[in-house]
Amino acid sequence: MTDFHSYSPREGHGLTHDPFKALISPRPIGWISTVGKNGVNNLAPYSFFNAVCAAPPMIMFSSDGFKHSATNAIETGAFVHNIVSLTLADRMNLTSQSVDENIDEFSHAGLDWVAGDVVDAVRVRDALASMECVVTGHQILKDRHGQDTQSVMVIGEVVRVHIQTSILRDGMVDELALDMISRLGYRSYGHTREIFEMVRPQART
């Protein structure tokens, strides 16, 4: 019989470190840029991030509390998601540092920015791809008992996409050239080095 280490999260995992994030991985990194009401540019990575809808395209990020990114996005109605390629990993990590709201995190991480075409938030100039988003809603997440948690989810509709032409092949994104990193568990990150395809099977008649 196969052995399992089973536990209830509210009662504790009984391991050296919480395995939750390691088991929900790899996770794409939402490198979220916003601008505050004070006009200062903010940039921070979020590993609780993903696409939630294709028509229209919509993405979300979840913040542990009302940090600068969530607050700015909600107050201004906009944010930009910037793809984190391997060459930008170190500077992405710099933007995970907690700094005062009056510090421009682009300057802090040595990054140049480009103004958004549609939204007021700026994007990372060297990102191989970016998505400008208009906030469509936000929600404080609740537990199964209906109690508020510390996390807030922000959802945005993608209104403008930027892709460097160097990673386009025959009208498609070259996913290896995109060189995107992902968040794993603990302090670990992943890197896409190999890709395989599978064709969805047809329904049986």
Q: Care to give the gist of this entry?
A:
By secondary structure, the chain is mostly beta strands.
Show the helix and strand layout:
Layout: H1 20-23, E1 27-28, E2 30-35, E3 41-46, E4 49-54, E5 57-64, H2 68-76, E6 78-82, H3 89-94, H4 105-108, E7 113-115, E8 122-124, E9 129-142, E10 148-163, E11 168-169, E12 172-173, H5 175-178, E13 181-183, E14 189-191
Antiparallel strand pairs: 1-13, 2-3, 2-6, 4-5, 5-10, 6-9, 7-8, 9-10, 11-12, 13-14
Tell me the name of the CATH class: Mainly Beta
Lateral arrangement of strands in the main beta sheet: 3-2-6-9-10-5-4
The number of distinct structural domains comes to 1
Q: Tell me how many strands there are.
A: 14
Shape: globular
